[in-house]
Amino acid sequence: MNPLDMVYILFFSLMIFSSSLWLLVYFKNLGKVSSDPEPEEYRDISFIVPAYNEEDCVGETVKALLNMDYPEDKKEIIAVNDGSTDGTLQVLEEFEEDITVIDKENTGKADSMNRALEEVDTEYVACMDADSVPSEDYLKSMVGHLEREDVAGVTPTMKLKSDSGLVEKIQWTEYVYQIFLRKVFALFQVQYVMPGPGSVYKSSFLKDTGGWETDTHTEDMEIAFRMVSEGYNVENSTNAVVKTSPPSSMAALFRQRIRWYKGYIENFINYKSLFGNPDSGNMGVFLLPLNTVWILMMVFLLGHTSFSIMNSVFQKANTYLMLGYVP
User: Fold this and answer.
1) Which of 209, 246, 259, 313 would you call most buried, defined as having the most Cβ atoms within 10 angstroms of its Cβ?
2) What is the DSSP string of 222-290?
């Protein structure tokens, strides 16, 4: 057996091992998959809605938050116009009687959320992307998890607003898989992303640790790494549904994925102390090493496949030049 065969055997063995592990975790905890703890009380929460050039969708988002099934005197909405050049500010101002509107120059999503965080004095805080819409009972499924002292954040179940186009259908498949994987990661205590559409936090954690990181490609990933580094867990609710708008073209999807991969590598380097550290639980001793192997394997397979294709083309071209035809 040559070294290349051994690499491929290792790769497929890793695939089988990972798939078997996640399925085992899922079925062993089947009773927890679709259940959420009932909150002892409904505590105050602030929704932060950062918006940049979202005039076509931010109104729908604000309406959904206002109509959410949660005590009216226990929630507030803080919308931040991040220097939009369209009519986003005008749309938000239509709701000024019911929400707080902050108008600022364009400094990015993370900085906008930090600006809103300065106005927050509630026990919980949630972020909601301006193109996302929560289900009516979404919040009641989330807040019970935060009553645990070891939990600093909860993630929702994300679905697509539309799956009519080819790009959307591709992402629909991915989102279905992510619903399963995010819950399994929560059960295994290895979630490393707090998605912008609908994640809920303990306000004290955000304020004590400096809010969202502005110097990163993925502030939603950095905050999850930070939670783990501080000894907290991240929970997930499959009942808390938030529908969001995906990239509408392959080019936009590609740019989004490149940003995610850059963000992961960036945060992996910044939180390298978690790697192999028993104090960081399954994240440090299992998931980060596993992800590292996955990345190395994918780079190798991509490189080997590209080389094989180019070599085959070269050989056929060389044969044609020598013989005048390709047998």
Assistant:
1) 246
2) HHHHHHHHTT-EEEEEEEEEEEEPPPSSHHHHHHHHHHHHHHHHHHHHHTGGGTT-GGGHHIIIIIHHH
